[in-house]
Each structure stands twice: as C-alpha cells, then as structure tokens.
Amino acid sequence: MATVIQARIPVDQFALTETFQSCPDVIFECERIVESSQTSVMPLIRIWASDTPRQTLEAALSDDPSVAEYTLIADYEDEWLYRMEWTRHIQLILTMLTNAEAIIRNVYGTSSGWSLQILFPTRDELTVTYEFCGEHDLSFDVVLIRDFDNDQFDSRYTLTHEQYEALMRGFEHGYFAVPRDITAEELADDLKISHQALSERFRRAHAALIEDTLVGRPIRRPR
C-alpha cells in the first residue's frame, strides 16, 4: 500500500541556506510541484516576509548557490510569486526521492527547516530512502506517517468517499452555519447512518484535513 509521510529536512541540506541567513523571516511555499523525475521539481515558489523588502530578498536569491535563476511573477507587497530554476546543489535530495519513485505533494520552508509531504508507492520505497540518507549522512526526520487509502476521493487529501460525502452534505444543508440549519441527528438520518457514526466520520475527516493542510505549514505573522 502507498504511504504518505511528513518529513523535516535541515535548511543546510536542501535549499536556500544563504537566503535564510540573510532573510530569516521569510517563508517559502511551493505553489506548483511536479514529479521528482523532472528537471524542475519546484518551479513556482510563493514567498512571504514580515520584515524583509523584496530588494533584499532578491539580492539574497542572486547570491544563493542553490538558485540558478529566478523570475518575479507577481508582487503583493509582502507576498511574492517567483518562477525558480535550481542548481545541482539540491540534486542529492531530489535523487533520493527519484530513486524511491516518490511524489512530492507539498513543500514549505522556513529558517528552521524544510517540511515535505511525500507519497511513496510502498513502505519498501520509504525504507530505500532511509538507507540512502544513512549512506549520504542526510538528516530525514519523519514526523508523520500513514497509509494512503485507495478509497480516497482526491489524491491531494486523505479523505475517504464517505468522509467527503458527510462533509459536503453537512455544508450543503447548513450544518456548519452559525446557527445551524440542521441538527446532527437530522444530518445522520439524511446520510442513513447513526449519530455516533456521523460524529466519528467528522472527527476522522477533520483530523485528515488538518494533517493535509496545516501540519508542516509555517505560521505567517502579519507585519
């Protein structure tokens, strides 16, 4: 069975070490991720900064050995979107993931480290990754691990069809409105399940969404 993990990698073993040293407040999020066998795995990067002006950021990017080239796509004052081309400096990590036939699902970076959510075809490929890290003295700290269920309705999230149906039906009928337009008992009847089953389905769905969308994300602090 496929396996999804959330892993942490130190900044100095991946990318943008010098940029983080010059601009410690910046947060990087990969806006678009392609399969790790491609030349540019993280071509679009969204960047936030609470104190660093864009000119300072771009000066740091220009001096960073992990960056081959960058192009500003959009400017929203303290938030920017860049097209990035990376150097071979970060190829060791990418080689590790390519060898394991892994798919990078999301990536976030701060001065404290990089957080990656990665899908491995099986646990065996995850084992290959551990062995690769040991052979090359790489730090690869897995903070979350779970099986990827084939019944999930969308490959980006770990919701099952039943959890997705419960959430969407609840939303459509106003269960999440304030005040509610439908009670839990009425919603359970509509889904033809017990109140207890609905409660458990919601808890599991909420936990899955939190892991998929919040765990590993850095906290953005306004100016």
UniProtKB/TrEMBL annotation:
InterPro entries: BAT_GAF/HTH-assoc, HTH_bacterioopsin
Residue stretches making up the Bacterioopsin transcriptional activator GAF and HTH associated domain: 24-144
Keywords (A to Z) from UniProt: Transcription, Transcription regulation
Residues annotated as domain HTH bat-type: 159-210
Protein name, UniProt field: Helix-turn-helix domain-containing protein
